[in-house]
């Protein structure tokens, strides 16, 4: 059987790197410093390349290295090719879970209002893990989306995934002080005098809230609708209506007085926050490290929340 022909004109990357660095610096000494090699090792690599090519690459004039005319274009081409090789290698490494990258899908408002202000603690403790946070409003789809794990609010009834409970969801009605215009709110029914701001991602939130209080009303599902929680918060702050929000994302506005609680207080719902991941991430150290850290942060948060 005929043996395959070897690629005899393909130099080693080490020899090419030595030549390209020497060509760029016009100095073996500086090339050796850049490549963390000895000058003699760099010189041997260049000599080996010259033997393979059958041509000299440099000539010495007044203690300076001068590349031959053909070597000038060769050096420029190699600089470009080695740069591209380094770029694709770096890109490949950055996509390897075992080397640090962890892509986390998080609802945008939860990320900006609660998670990101706490992230410095995780980054400081686990600097080897590169977090890639992506905003995700609708439910995760690990099969068709480029995400590793997710933080999601819901009932936890999701097949074919692993999940860790983080914390329950407590909601609270909020509105701008100006919306009430001096009107007194004595019962939950009094809230129906005002527009109810709806979340398209949680369309039955108001309905379930009123049902918990024994009130059935068709008005519970009507009112201006917003997909993003941040937009709903903005609408409430602007006096458009009353919003029913997870208390952890409106605490800033409540503390500042931009929003008030017109009736009642925090109400616990069946929905909760979960750390969710597919079976393939079950033994991923980075994913489990992040999940454990999330649980610690949630426990700390709940311990300081009245």
Automatic annotation (TrEMBL):
<keyword id="KW-0805">Transcription regulation</keyword>
<comment type="similarity">
    <text>Belongs to the LysR transcriptional regulatory family.</text>
</comment>
<protein>
    <submittedName>
        <fullName>LysR family transcriptional regulator</fullName>
    </submittedName>
</protein>
<keyword id="KW-0238">DNA-binding</keyword>
<dbReference type="InterPro" id="IPR000847">
    <property type="entry name" value="LysR_HTH_N"/>
</dbReference>
<dbReference type="InterPro" id="IPR005119">
    <property type="entry name" value="LysR_subst-bd"/>
</dbReference>
<dbReference type="Pfam" id="PF00126">
    <property type="entry name" value="HTH_1"/>
</dbReference>
<dbReference type="GO" id="GO:0003700">
    <property type="term" value="F:DNA-binding transcription factor activity"/>
</dbReference>
<dbReference type="InterPro" id="IPR058163">
    <property type="entry name" value="LysR-type_TF_proteobact-type"/>
</dbReference>
<dbReference type="InterPro" id="IPR036388">
    <property type="entry name" value="WH-like_DNA-bd_sf"/>
</dbReference>
<dbReference type="GO" id="GO:0006351">
    <property type="term" value="P:DNA-templated transcription"/>
</dbReference>
<feature type="domain" description="HTH lysR-type">
    <location>
        <begin position="11"/>
        <end position="68"/>
    </location>
</feature>
<dbReference type="GO" id="GO:0043565">
    <property type="term" value="F:sequence-specific DNA binding"/>
</dbReference>
<keyword id="KW-0804">Transcription</keyword>
<dbReference type="InterPro" id="IPR036390">
    <property type="entry name" value="WH_DNA-bd_sf"/>
</dbReference>
<dbReference type="Pfam" id="PF03466">
    <property type="entry name" value="LysR_substrate"/>
</dbReference>
């Amino acid at each position: 059987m005929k043996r395959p022909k070897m690629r005899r004109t393909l130099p080693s990357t080490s020899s090419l790197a030595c030549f390209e660095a020497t060509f760029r610096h016009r100095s073996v000494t500086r090339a050796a410093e850049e490549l963390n090699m000895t000058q003699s090792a760099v010189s041997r690599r260049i000599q080996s390349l010259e033997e393979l090519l059958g041509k000299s690459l440099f000539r010495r004039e007044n203690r300076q290295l001068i590349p031959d005319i053909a070597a000038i274009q060769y050096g420029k081409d190699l600089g470009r090719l080695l740069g591209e090789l380094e770029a694709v290698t770096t890109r490949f490494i950055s996509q390897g879970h075992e080397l640090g990258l962890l892509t986390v899908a998080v609802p945008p408002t939860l990320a900006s209002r609660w998670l990101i202000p706490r992230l410095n603690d995780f980054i400081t403790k686990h600097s080897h893990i590169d977090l890639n946070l992506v905003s995700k409003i609708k439910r995760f789809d690990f099969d068709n989306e480029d995400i590793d794990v997710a933080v999601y609010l819901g009932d936890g009834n999701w097949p074919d995934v692993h999940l860790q409970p983080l914390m329950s969801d407590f909601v609270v009605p909020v509105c701008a002080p100006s919306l009430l215009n001096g009107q007194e709110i004595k019962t939950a029914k009094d809230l129906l005098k005002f527009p109810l701001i709806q979340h398209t991602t949680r369309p039955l939130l108001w309905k379930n809230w009123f049902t918990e209080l024994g009130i059935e009303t068709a008005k519970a599902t009507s009112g201006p609708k917003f997909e993003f929680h941040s937009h709903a918060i903005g609408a409430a702050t602007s006096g458009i209506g009353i919003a029913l929000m997870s208390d952890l994302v409106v605490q800033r506005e409540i503390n500042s007085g931009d929003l008030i609680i017109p009736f009642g207080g925090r109400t616990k719902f069946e929905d909760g926050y979960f750390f969710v991941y597919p079976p393939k991430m079950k033994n991923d150290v980075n994913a489990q490290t992040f999940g454990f850290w999330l649980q610690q942060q949630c426990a700390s948060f709940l311990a300081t929340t009245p």
